[in-house]
């Protein structure tokens, strides 16, 4: 049998033994547990005190940390009561298990407060912070501070209605959608729709798809403030408005901003940038992966990636825009009025809105105005009830002239009347090319520019950059347009009709008889005038000339510059006009015969005469001999006329024939050419197809410094007397395809510095005496591959430039070592017919 008593004793002893072992185990862990709690207290105590302090500053309820503080307080009291293992008396060891249990209990309670309760409270606090931050950013994004940004994607409101922008938008989008950094300029006159174009671009789906919310639109205007612009960009990014002490600080911060947001593509639109602000554009450039700058301006800034000029609307698009603005359907009357608006969006807007809701009588009145006057004059004369005679159109176009007062990359040493030069363009007929050579003649005498035309060409370029003119080059001028030997025979200026009307309107300020610039156009918009001659007989004459110019009485004018345009049926019925103040006379003719008016004989101050025939056949000129009375006449330019026998022009310095018949002038004169032109310094003969040889008499004009015979394809012979032109500095014989031989006497031209035989394709050799041109600096011989060089060219020690083509350049290789200054420029073939429309039109 089992001893039950023994079993009971065994079970009791086992339990006691297990309990003893558990006490010993707890006593062993007591030390490490106590030390862990002491470390926890020391680490977390300061942190909880900081949290409590921040809560007090933020005025938050203390209950959020009371549990932590209570737990830390209990932990502190318990640690104070616990016996220290090293310092305790031996019998205190039996109390270690009890304190171990208390320490473990406080550990679990405090761990829950930290790991669960505190983390939950922190998560809640974080949500509150995020919500408040979102509200702050939303509030900042709604603040404007004067910024020009509106709507999504940083662009202003999308234009309500647009036409004619598809092609230019497509071309520019191709550039903007390419990767990389680039600057693009959209240019055009005021009222041409540059801002509308930029706004439309910002709302394009593909542009938005690439740039998203990183599209920024800033209006720069005439007086830009860099600091304000950068502040605006900060606000548009949803950031706090920054204050900058100077422009340099603003640019530095802008660079940081662009780099930060440049992780995605950026499009920055700088609208309405005025001249002189090129450096401002440069400051916005930044080397980040995909950053585009779009500039709109009335001037064409050079040196950037692309320049996109906005052109006037075509008739179909113009009619759509007009009908939308006037709220009408298309009709013949609408089409006539639209055609008078010249495709300018602003003119369509002004006239369309003025006619909106008007009756048929108002529409007919506008039609008559536009038929009898220019669009600018019509708007100023308009009496339609809802129209504003002080329309923005004239002011907008006129403001473009203000751009001429701003500094540009090229500046003159002395001021020049750029606005006056612009108004001078109105002296020539509409829709016709204006030769730069004619402008050089005018401006050299009127404004004392340099004789070679360098500064005149700078003025032309400035007008073109301001969109007040277009420059057309009909031939590659590189052969003649380098260094100091500039030639602008192939350069022309054209103007849009509305721009020309602006020049004419500005020239018409003041009474007709007192204007400094008198423009008389008999061709355009003629009227019936009732005049009475000395016999008392009245006549009704159809003409746009004023009454005083048609009658027989004498009329005095003070105009310094005068332009007279006449049509095919002009009868030369002039009054006895006294124009003794006129210095430049421009005659635009279209008749087969033309008689110089008698009053020209009394133009004692006349210095420049420009006669241009715009008919198909050369015009016969009568009364040419009266020019001999003009002692101050310095320059004559004749175009598409049959030049009569030359008369004495004792002080003439420059004579130019363009597309003229010259045989009568050179072959039938009773007076020696050298006697008729004793002080001539420059002669230009261009596109004169009847010229076969140069009269020997011209070679006796020892004052001659420049002789140019170009595009005369029947010209064959250079006279032996050419060597008598001892003062000749420039000799151009380019594009004379029949010229076969060059005389040895050319070696006597010791002052010659430029020699041009470009495209003289029949010329097979140059004379041996070419080497005697000891001052020759430049030789142009593109297209002369058959021409052999004489050995004497090795003596041309002053020769520093030879312009030729790929076929001709090998001929110069043997001489390079002997001519240390020589540079051989190789041009590619220039094949175009740009010159042809001008020739046919003239």
Automatic annotation (TrEMBL):
Highest taxon in the source lineage: Eukaryota
Protein name: Uncharacterized protein
């Amino acid at each position: 049998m089992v001893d039950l008593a023994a079993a009971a004793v065994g079970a009791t002893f086992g339990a006691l033994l297990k309990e003893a072992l558990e006490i010993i185990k707890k006593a062993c862990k007591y030390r490490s547990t106590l030390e862990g709690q002491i470390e926890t207290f020391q680490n977390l105590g300061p942190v909880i005190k900081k949290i409590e302090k921040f809560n007090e500053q933020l005025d938050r309820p203390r209950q959020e940390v009371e549990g932590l503080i209570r737990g830390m307080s209990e932990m502190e009291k318990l640690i104070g009561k616990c016996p220290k293992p090293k310092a305790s008396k031996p019998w205190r060891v039996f109390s270690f298990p009890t304190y171990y249990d208390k320490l473990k209990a406080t550990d679990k309670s405090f761990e829950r407060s930290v790991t669960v309760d505190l983390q939950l409270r922190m998560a809640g606090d974080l949500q509150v912070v995020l919500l408040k931050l979102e509200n702050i950013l939303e509030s900042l994004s709604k603040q404007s501070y004067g910024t020009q940004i509106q709507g999504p994607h940083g662009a202003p409101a999308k234009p309500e209605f647009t036409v004619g922008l598809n092609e230019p938008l497509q071309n520019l989008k191709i550039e903007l959608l390419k990767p990389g950094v680039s600057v693009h300029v959209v240019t055009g006159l005021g009222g041409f729709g540059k801002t509308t174009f930029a706004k439309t671009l910002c709302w394009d789906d593909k542009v938005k798809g690439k740039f998203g919310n990183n599209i920024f639109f800033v209006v720069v205007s005439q007086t830009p403030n860099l600091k304000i612009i950068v502040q605006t960009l900060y606000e548009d990014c949803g950031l706090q408005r920054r204050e900058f002490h100077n422009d340099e600080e603003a640019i530095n911060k802008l660079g940081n901003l662009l780099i930060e947001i440049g992780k995605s593509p950026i499009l920055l639109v700088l609208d309405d940038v005025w001249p002189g602000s090129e450096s401002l554009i440069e400051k916005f450039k930044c080397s980040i992966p995909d950053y585009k700058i779009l500039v709109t301006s009335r001037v064409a800034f050079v040196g950037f990636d692309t320049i996109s000029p906005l052109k006037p609307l075509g008739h179909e698009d113009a009619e759509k825009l007009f009908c939308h603005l006037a709220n009408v359907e298309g009709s013949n009357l609408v089409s006539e009025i639209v055609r008078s608006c010249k495709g300018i969006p602003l003119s369509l807007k002004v006239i369309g809105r003025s006619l909106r809701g008007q009756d048929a009588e108002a529409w007919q009145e506008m039609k008559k105005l536009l038929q009898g006057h220019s669009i600018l004059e019509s708007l100023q004369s308009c009496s339609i009830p809802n129209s504003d005679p002080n329309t923005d159109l004239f002011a907008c176009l006129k403001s473009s002239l203000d751009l001429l007062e701003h500094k540009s990359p090229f500046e003159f040493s002395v001021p020049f009347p750029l606005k006056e030069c612009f108004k001078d363009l109105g002296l020539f007929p509409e829709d016709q090319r204006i030769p730069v050579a004619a402008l050089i003649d005018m401006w050299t005498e009127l404004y004392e520019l340099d004789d070679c035309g360098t500064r005149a060409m700078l003025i032309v370029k400035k007008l073109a950059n301001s969109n007040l003119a277009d420059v057309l080059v009909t031939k590659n001028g590189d052969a003649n347009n380098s260094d100091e030997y500039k030639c602008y025979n192939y350069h022309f200026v054209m103007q849009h009709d509305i721009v020309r009307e602006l020049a004419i309107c500005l020239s018409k300020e003041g009474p007709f008889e007192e204007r400094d610039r008198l423009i008389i156009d008999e061709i355009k918009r003629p009227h019936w005038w009732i005049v009475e001659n000395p016999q008392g007989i009245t006549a009704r004459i159809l003409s746009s000339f004023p009454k005083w110019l048609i009658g027989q009485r004498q009329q005095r004018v003070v105009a310094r510059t005068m332009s007279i345009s006449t049509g095919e049926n002009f009868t030369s019925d002039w009054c006895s006009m006294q124009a003794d103040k006129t210095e430049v006379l421009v005659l635009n003719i279209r008749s087969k015969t033309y008689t110089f008016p008698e009053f020209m004989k009394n133009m004692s101050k006349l210095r420049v005469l420009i006669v241009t025939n715009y008919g198909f056949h050369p015009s016969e000129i009568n009364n040419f001999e009266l020019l001999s009375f003009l002692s101050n006449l310095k320059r004559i330019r004749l175009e598409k006329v049959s030049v009569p026998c030359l008369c004495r022009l004792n002080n003439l310095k420059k004579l130019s024939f363009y597309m003229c018949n010259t045989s009568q002038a050179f072959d039938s004169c009773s007076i020696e050419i050298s006697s008729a032109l004793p002080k001539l310094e420059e002669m230009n003969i261009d596109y004169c197809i009847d010229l076969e040889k140069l009269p020997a008499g011209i070679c006796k004009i020892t004052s001659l410094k420049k002789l140019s015979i170009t595009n005369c394809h029947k010209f064959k012979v250079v006279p032996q007397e050419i060597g008598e032109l001892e003062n000749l500095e420039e000799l151009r014989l380019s594009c004379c395809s029949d010229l076969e031989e060059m005389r040895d006497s050319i070696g006597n031209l010791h002052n010659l510095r430029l020699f041009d035989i470009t495209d003289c394709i029949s010329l097979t050799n140059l004379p041996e005496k070419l080497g005697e041109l000891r001052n020759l600096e430049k030789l142009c011989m593109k297209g002369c591959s058959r021409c052999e060089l004489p050995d004497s060219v090795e003596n041309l020690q002053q020769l520093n430039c030879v312009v030729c083509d790929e076929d001709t350049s090998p001929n110069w290789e043997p001489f390079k070592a002997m001519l240390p200054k020589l540079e051989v420029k190789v041009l590619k073939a220039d094949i175009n017919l740009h010159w042809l429309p001008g020739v046919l039109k003239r």
